[in-house]
Specification:
Blueprint: E1 12-21, E2 24-29, E3 41-42, E4 48-49, E5 57-58, E6 67-72, E7 78-83
Parallel strand pairs: 3-7
Antiparallel strand pairs: 1-2, 1-6, 4-5, 6-7
Amino acid sequence: MDKIEMTGFVCIQRGQIDRIEDGGFVVKSLTRRDVESRPIKCANAYVKEFTGEPPAEDKYQYRPGDRVYFFMFPDGRGMILGKMED
């Protein structure tokens, strides 16, 4: 490998889900002004609440307007880590 690729500024941010698009959530950053993610998934997208065998219910559901913690790379990709407590 000839060069090292830098990821740039990546940190955990606070955001608000703006809309659902292409099977993911578009998050507007509350930490960085005028920054919006591409459609991203949740870290717990495949976690199921135990309701018997087999587990049948999603543990968490997100809707537009929910405030979340998330991270995002400079290209707009990232992941929702969880819901912010009120």
